[in-house]
Design brief:
single chain, 462 residues, alpha/beta, Rossmann fold, four-stranded mixed β-sheet, 17 helices, 17 strands, globular
């Protein structure tokens, strides 16, 4: 556990400064073939350690970080529980694992355009499948690599099941393995805006422009909001994620903006931001006219934290992807199958790549903010789910479950955070309970000043 915390701290901190004091309490409760609980605790601790160092920079006071391991596990899954109402399923009826002519493939069809792309490919030369059963029949006619390539080329999302060794020898797998966990690059110099440090709300006064969707990026910006940052989330006019909105808008304002039609509005928001967090693929913002270089020109000294699915080098750097797909590509789902002793791929019990990458992105943004204050220049931090996956796999090489392929080591899904009192919230959809915070940093405890809200509930301005 200590080795993993040290590895993540070194990963988010290019200056390799001494780690603030850390205390762990509680017991890990997620069972998995991989060291998921360790990753949960270590990634949340790393974000807390970055915050403690930032506070020390502001106040010259050493601050202890405390992480509750039970609650850290709870924060690696949805933390809002509806009371008297239900959220829709996050999964489309076609999304899932399918057997191919030579193995397995995962189709990710939650976004309507990704579903259209996958079904169009499967309809080539035959009738378009309309149900999961029909999709399963169609997929069996394909070899996995061929179907993966066809769906990706059509603009969809899919991943063939690979072993760990196959991933390490794959051109993209080897490229991602060679990347830093967090790749930092210094940018232009400029003084940041001044604000009065508050040990209880250390990020109060910091403006964060949130250009992320789904899980990893919103987790990062939610963490920043929980410690006082003013977070403004931007979505396109037609985007929606109804199963995730209460989770991903907690503590933030939310606005809609058509970047193609109103680029000047986005420029104004960037000019007023201290941190930009985005989850676009490597080439996507560039094509919209907002490359990292252009962001720096708009706001000299800005801190950029960016993340994607498959990394920033190699042939798949521009590929669409999600946590479950990266698990298939990187060998995680195949190892899960071996541990379970079955034939079907076995995913992690939680979307650990998303959550860990989210907390590490928050840590990297805070480190970048501290660097700006200390050295006077901005920075870009680049992270990916695929590189986080590699950290989990290598950490797992020292986990006793890895060498014991016994069925009792299958994941336990339920997270029990009993003994901790949740917070009751009134959301636009009805009352909900919020899991207690897993982290304290001295006098600072995670607290959300804004309730969840519908996408586009606010105006696109600071």
């Amino acid at each position: 556990m200590g080795d993993l915390v040290d590895e993540l701290w070194r990963g988010v901190h290019p200056q390799r400064t001494a780690m603030p004091p850390l205390r762990l309490v509680g017991q890990p409760i997620i069972e998995s073939a991989f060291a998921v609980s360790d990753l949960a605790t270590a990634s949340i601790a790393t974000a807390g350690l970055a915050l403690a160092e930032f506070l020390q920079l502001l106040t010259d006071v050493t601050t202890e970080v405390t992480v509750d391991r039970t609650l850290a596990d709870a924060w690696f899954r949805p933390v809002l529980t509806p009371i008297g109402w239900e959220l829709p399923s996050p999964w489309d009826d076609i999304a899932g694992d399918y057997e191919t002519a030579d193995g397995w493939i995962r189709l990710h069809t939650n976004a309507p355009h990704h579903k259209v792309a996958a079904l169009a490919v499967l309809a080539r030369g035959r009738r378009e499948p309309r149900t999961a059963r029909a999709v399963a029949t169609a997929v069996k006619h394909w070899h996995g690599a061929e179907l993966e390539r066809a769906i990706v080329e059509a603009g969809g999302c899919a991943a063939e099941l690979r072993t760990e060794d196959e991933w390490l020898t794959h051109p993209h797998g080897s490229a991602v393995t060679a990347e830093e966990l967090v790749a930092f690059a210094s940018t232009t110099g400029a003084a940041g805006r001044y604000w009065q440090p508050n040990p209880e709300r250390p990020l109060a006064g910091i403006r964060v422009l949130d250009l992320t969707r789904v899980i990893a990026g919103p987790v990062a910006t939610r963490f920043l909001a929980g410690f006082g940052a003013d977070v403004l989330r931007i979505d396109s006019p037609d985007w929606n994620e109804p199963a995730l909105v209460p989770e991903t808008t907690l503590g933030k304002r939310s606005a809609r903006l058509d970047i193609r039609r109103d680029p000047d509005v986005l420029s104004e928001l960037i000019a007023g931001a201290d941190i930009v967090v985005h989850g676009y693929r490597a080439d996507a913002l560039d094509r919209l006219g907002f490359s990292d270089r252009e962001l720096e020109a708009i706001r000299p000294g800005i801190v950029i934290a960016r993340l994607n699915a498959y990394g920033w080098t190699g042939p798949w750097r521009d590929r669409r992807g999600f946590d479950s797909l990266v698990q298939f590509s990187s060998g995680i789902a195949d190892t899960g199958r071996a541990v379970a002793g079955g034939e079907r791929p076995v995913a992690l019990p939680v979307q650990a790549l998303d959550y860990a990458t989210g907390f590490l992105t928050a840590a990297a943004a805070i480190v970048g903010l501290g660097t700006q204050l200390r050295a006077g220049y901005g920075s870009t931090a680049s992270l990916s789910l695929a590189r986080t996956a590699r950290t989990l796999v290598t950490a797992n090489q020292f986990d006793p479950l890895r060498s014991s392929h016994e069925p009792q080591h299958r994941a336990r899904v339920a997270v029990d955070a009993s003994g901790h009192q949740p917070t009751l919230l009134d959301t636009p959809w009805g009352p909900a309970s919020l899991q207690p915070a897993p982290l304290t940093v001295g006098a600072a405890t995670q607290r959300f000043d804004l309730l969840p809200r519908a996408l586009g509930a606010d105006a696109p301005r600071w």
